[in-house]
């Protein structure tokens, strides 16, 4: 797949005080991408008359370059101790994406340029742990691999954590651009997780992301580079032929990865879900979606959240966990939710 190229770039004035901000400014101008300068990276307002689909497409083609002001990190329970946000959103257009739903009209891509200040803040948060391991999730608000070719921030982050005795980094991606991360010092302090699914789900719902083959190839490279590795199977969906498809995904994965490493693989399993709010947004943005959004055939978990009814969920859990145990007997299944 091709790397993301913005159709328009908005640069916050203050971002030009940082070398990455100036570098990006020059690069985009050289590439002939229209660049505009704005007062605040939080005040980005496209034409309000746009249809929901047009607005969504606009946000996914727009890159905002800004300075991160809030350097007190939020909790990221249960995935990690803190959220570490170097960028927000991503160029993918996954129909069910909870991030796009939460961000609403702010789904545009944003990269922060004050990397050194963010790393200083990480140090302070590690110190708060008073000698305990402190973990940070780099994908709570974005897919950091998708914009790495522009910023190089993930590489810096991994190298930074390699030197932090008590700091650990986690990230998850649906992209495959990992080549600049293979020969760097990571000290096994960064856990890479790839979000994978059946070919059916990827083709129908995960637009503009890497194919399954590309993700598996990238995962193999990451494993060979010695990183701790894991997979998130999400959203797990039930549709005609789902068992055969998930079997194929796991079989393919097992044939491509080595199993002799000391580091066990981790699996996180998340079944398909939607909320009253996401249903509305998905139907507006993707009028022809094949996602199943009928409330009556799902179980209402409360707070407007819908999942598969108990019996179906149990069947899904048993099948997927059984196949993981079959293909990866030493893997750790962290949770099914
Ligand atoms: S790749 Fe991840 S963050 Fe990007 S649209 Fe898909 S689910 Fe959302």
TrEMBL record:
The keyword Lyase applies. Pfam families: SPL. The keyword RNA-binding does not apply. GO terms for molecular function: 4 iron, 4 sulfur cluster binding; DNA photolyase activity; S-adenosyl-L-methionine binding. CDD domains: Radical_SAM (cd01335). InterPro entries: rSAM (IPR007197), rSAM_sf (IPR058240), SPL (IPR049539), SPL_Clostridia (IPR034559), SPL_firmicutes (IPR023897). SUPFAM superfamilies: Radical SAM enzymes (SSF102114). Residues 75-310 form the Radical SAM core domain. Keywords: Lyase. One of its GO terms (cellular component) is endospore-forming forespore. This is Spore photoproduct lyase.
